[in-house]
Amino acid sequence: MMKRVSVLIPVRDGAKDLPALFTALAAQTLQPFEVIVADTASKDGSREICRQYGARVISVDRDEFDHGGTRTMLVREAVGDVVLFLTQDAIPANEQALKLLLTALNAEESIACAYGRQLPKEGASLQSAFLRSFNYPEVSEVRSYDDRRRQGLKTAFLSNSFSAWKRELLLANGCFRNGLIFGEDTCALGRLLLAGWKVAYCAEAGVYHSHNYSIAGEFRRSFDIGVLHERERWLLGSFGGATRIGGNYVRLSLKNIAARQKYWLVPDWFLRNGMKFLGYKCGSNWYRLPLFLCRSMSMNRRWWQR
Fold first, then answer.
1. Taking CA 169 as the corner, what is the angle to CA 207 and CA 240, rounded to the nearest 5 degrees?
2. Mean pLDDT of 23-36
3. Residues 31 and 148 both lie in one domain
């Protein structure tokens, strides 16, 4: 029997995407018990749009927003047995998306959370589309802590852009950490895996969600990943480093360009992956850098003002 589902969505200036998201939610065969939105000082009418579609809206001050803390607040406000996270720009790919994700979550008692496949949006660049296929393959799987020997850090990978968690279990294990630069989902999953729980990846449950990052955006994203890994050293210590994952991505993304014979993208590939490497290395050594430089290199600049 399906359990009550609370859909939780952090929002900031999401008016462009929210109507499509709520329309897709209304078409789901599995309807959520409630939809709760945490709106962070939107100035484009996002709160009104959310209320128009029946969502409960909680206002969050811009200085109070935190990737982990705000999501924990939403979990505590929810009443569902399952909390299902979406981001404002993640649009369910079909009418079965929520039901399929919940089916994966409930397949075993030992599964604590599940996440679905992210598909490239219309207009996604070749590199953006490949990143989605690399991180979200076509084959579903269930992972446990033992899989770290085979998959390394990817064992603890998932995304709160489209994920479902057993609410009471999540709360009992500390929910999402406050004060992280980002990666609250990975850190929460890592703790659950260490405690003996499992995560399910459901390739059949999909959302359209991708970003065409600029070269500078790639650097900043990788810088923040480096900061997370340096500050949360237990992740790499428990599951292994990110070098093998990064190396596989670089090799396979170049192979993808060659297979499609789009050789004019090779210079962009070199520059883009070089900046990712540089960004990660800078982020891993953030404590050696002046604060103003860290702030300028980060995608989450407000975090450095704390």
1. 70
2. 98
3. yes
- pLDDT for the residue numbered 2: 56
Are both 145 and 233 inside the same structural domain?
no
**In the chain, which ranges are E strands?**
5-11, 34-40, 56-60, 82-86, 91-92, 111-119, 141-143, 162-166, 198-208
User: Do 194 and 243 reside in the same domain of the chain?
Assistant: no
Are residue 202 and residue 245 in the same domain, yes or no? no
DSSP conformational letter for 4: P
pLDDT above 90 (res 244): no
DSSP line for 100-164: HHHHHHTS-TTEEEEEEEEEPPTT--HHHHHHHHHHS-SS-EEE-GGGHHHHGGGGG---TTEEE
Crossing angle (nearest 10°) for helices 266-284 and 126-135: 60
Distance from C-alpha of 134 to C-alpha of 55, rounded to nearest angstrom:
33
The answer to whether residue 280 is domain-embedded is yes
Q: How far is CA 60 from CA 38, 299, 306, in A?
A: 6, 20, 17
Question: Which amino acid is located at 21 in the chain?
Answer: L
- Largest Cα separation within the chain, whole Å, is 54
Tell me the mean pLDDT in the region 217-246.
93
Q: Kindly report the average pLDDT of the chain as a whole number.
A: 95
Structure tokens belonging to residue 109: 């008692």
